Structures are given as structure tokens and as C-alpha cells.
Amino acid sequence: MRLVFAGTPAAAVPTLQRLATLHEIVAVVTRPDAPLGRKRLLTPSPVARAAEELGLPVIRAARLDADATAQITALEPELGVIVAYGGLVREPLLSAPDAGWINLHFSLLPAWRGAAPVQRALIAGDRELGASVFQLVPELDAGDVFAMRTIAVAPTATADQALENLAHDGAELTAEVVAAIADGTARAVPQRGEPTLAPKLTLDDGLLDWSQTAEAVFARFRGVTPEPGAHTTIDGQRLKILEAGPAEDADPLEPGVISSTRSALLIGTASAPLAVTRVQPAGKGAMSAVDWWRGQRDTEGLRAGS
To answer: What is d(CA 294, CA 298) in angstroms, rounded to the nearest whole number?
Structure first.
């Protein structure tokens, strides 16, 4: 088929690469180069880099406006495929390809419609993650579903690790749906169940609440790592928590109380403590949590969340 592909982050790259081996991709649409790093150098999106390596034409567009619509429509694609592009597809572009657009979404729809499905699912403590390929419609993530797959993710995986797994399995799922559309056997069914929403995360979503159980605190840590980042406050100073996990066989501590071992800081929750192994203080680089703790002038009475 003649495809137009729209995507921006690394999670969209496996699908682009897989489809490029099977179909003619007439254009790749992605967000414009963005300033990254301390020097704020303009950097192509992961999808732009992958498209250029594949020798595919790239359309850089901050939004799918009239100009982008005209460029895409002129290429006469048979199907549009979108994976985390970062913008909405509206009419008349929605109907421009003969078969419309399909969307790979990293949730078991109608669960977690929105920009941060994996992160919100982890924060909520979902035991199952998955991917869905659905027909794009004007309403957010509400179209009929062609295929859905539950995908195994390690119980300690952070959002970036989980998304990497989902991206590769989702690429195969999307390729199967495109093949079915091409041969006329694809069938989509309405979504069933009560929708839940997954709005984009903010910095505040990364604040850990030590009055919750260890399971809930760790679930939030997983969901906000690496972005926007898990953090707490200690003596009024923000401390980013980079690596953490359940503290095996540790004695209970009161919520927010900190105890140091040779390899980790144990921070109390409403149940078992959480073991924090790597942190980043404000304005400094990443370091061992134990080394950071040893560097504090006076640890007497310091608590997380204070």
C-alpha cells in the first residue's frame, strides 16, 4: 500500500521501520527539530532520523494545518498510520487517504485514552499493559479497534522500559492490521467498556507521597520515570529519585523517615520502606543515594516530604 506515516518519538520508530520493509511510504510526517541539551541545539526527532536513514521524504510540521494537509493529499496515500505524532488529525486530512487513518495506541482501549497511556497505567497499578490499533476518528482515541494485544512487561519496569517493549510488539500488530486492510479482510469493532483518560504528565505528577503504601509509591515512581521524573523534598530542597525499588525484608519505618544502609536509603511509607539507590539533587549531577546522604551536614530529623 501507499502509506503516509506520522510519528515523533522513539516509540514510533519500530513501526516506521517495520512498515518500510512491507509497503511504499510516500512521506513521513513528524514534529519540527527541537532544541535539546544544555546548548539547546536543534535536534531532529527520532522518527525524522529514522526516516532519513531509510531514505524516506520527511514533512516537518508542528501541526497538521492546511499546508501539511495539502502536501500529504498531493501524494495520494491509500492509508495513513499515526504513532504518537503529538498533534490531531482533523478533516479534511482525516478523510484524505482512501482508507483513512489508523492509530497505534499503547493501551488496551478504551482504557487510558490520551497522551500518556503507559505512564498513567503504571501509576494506577495496572497489572496488564497492551497496544491497540484503531480507526482514527475526530473524538480522542475513540475509533473502532482492528486489533488489540496484551503485552508482558516486567513488574519493576519503568515507563520508558515498558514503552520500549510495547513499541516493538505494537509495530508487529500494526503491520498485521495494514496487511489486513490491504487485502480487504480487516474488521474493526467498537470499543467496549468505560473509558479512562491519560492526560499528559506534569512535574507535579512526579511528587511521591510517602503516606501511601510502598506499592502505590513504587507504582508512581515507575510511571513518572524518566519523565517528568520522580522527586521528593527533604528540608525544603527538591531531590530527584532516579532509581528505586521495593526494600526486601526491611523493617517498617514511619512515612518519610529515612534510614541508611550500605547500598541504599530506606524511606518509610504506609507499609514497607522503599529502597532508593540513585538520586539527583537540585543543580547537581546524578549520584549514589548513600553518597548524597553521607554528604549532608546534619541528617538528624531529616525526612522525605519535608
So the answer is: 9
